Amino acid sequence: MKDIDFDRNLIALLQLKGVGRQKIKNLIELVNQPQRLSFSELVEFGQMFQLIPLNVNLQDQDNAIAFAEKIMESCIKHKIGLVSYGNEKYPASMNFTDAPVLLYYQGDLECLNHDKRAALIGGREPTQSGADFAYESGSVLAEENYIVISGLATGCDFYGHMGCLRAGGKAVAFLPAGLMNVYPAENRPLAGKIIENGGCLLSEYAPMETVKPYRFVERDRLQSASSLFVVVSSFSAASGTIHTLNYAKKYNKKIFSTTTIFEESRDGFDELDRNKVLFEIYEKNELYHLMRNINK
């Protein structure tokens, strides 16, 4: 019951104005046994440590708790799992700077504890060779027992996930909305197949939350941070893929691609150069050999 109460309390804390995931994580680390504290006690400590605004009143707290209880009910109704930062079930691969306070999931959360995890990403409007490379890379990674991580977007994400699934592999998809609002809608069948094949859908947003522009960028950090390396297919300088690759730099993840993709996506790679993001380019067969042997 204590874990359930603590999850509810964290959801409620996130509803308070001026309180974000980093402040909550700081509070968890500063307080002794935060799981044993009531919500009002957490707020009191948060205000004492100047992590929660002093103008948060009792009505604000009551509203936050009521909202959190609705979210917990939605999780039960829609069979959505929930794990909080600091819980022993929280995936080790998600223990990074700016990690989510809460992870909502459907499917097998243990995928994120697998010792072989690769992000496979790219733009939403790939060239034919870009689509083919994403699909083939997904297959190769699956054959080598990698968990293939992406964002369930149209384009390269879709082809990478499909290549993985048709090779019998497991995929992880981070969503820019809650799990009751799988985005984009046309990839909902794909989301179902990911779960059916033993993979996992994840979001740091409450189940009923909808897509907002900033959430795409927040989602992108999760793909890079949770992977061992990143494989990129077709993308442009204006693509959201750039955000994921910038995060790969932040989290010290290697970025791989092929000579064909490099030539087709030169403006995207030029943008990486401007951002001082390092990447490695190989002939396709060389890259696949590297992926097969990278942990051997």
UniProtKB/TrEMBL annotation:
It holds the Pfam family DNA_processg_A. Residues 83-272 form the Smf/DprA SLOG domain. It comes from the Bacteria. InterPro entries: DprA, DrpA_SLOG. Coiled coil: none annotated. Belongs to the DprA/Smf family. This is Smf/DprA SLOG domain-containing protein. It comes from Acetobacterium fimetarium.
